[in-house]
Amino acid sequence: MEVHYVWPGCWRWPRNPTAFWVAATEDEAREFFFDKLSEEDKEEFNAAAADIDYLDGWYRGAAIDKYDDDRFRFLVAVDLSNISLGFGVYPYSGMWNGRGPFKGFRREISSPEELRNLL
Questions:
Q1: Which residues contact 97 (CB under 8 A, 6 or more apart)?
Q2: What is the 3-state secondary structure (H, E, C) of 64-108?
Q3: pLDDT, tens digit, 9 for 90 and up, residues 77-118
Q4: Phi and psi of 19, rounded to 5°?
Q5: In the beta sheet, which residues pair with residue 22?
């Protein structure tokens, strides 16, 4: 797995935890994240896993030029209390109007528990 970005004080969830943008293969995602996803995210993940072109590949990195892989992207709270499946473009989408909260942060990890050690 690879951490691509950090979002200090992520306001998407209560308590505003630090969150990380993590790229994971399908196998890694099923092992570490799937059980903690919402039912809606589970359905979306399964659909995207079954069809690489689901939603034009937006759940996978290959949907944008910044990535040359088909890993899934997740927003993961540092304490693992919240995990969400995300579109590959989320950290630099136009929705932020140039004020995106994500900071570049590239690290390899072997499990999500390692996120706590990255701060």
A1: none
A2: CCCCCCCCEEEEEECCCCCEEEECCCHHHCHHHCCCCCCEEEEEE
A3: 999 999 999 887 787 767 778 788 999 889 999 999 999 999
A4: -130, 155
A5: 3, 74
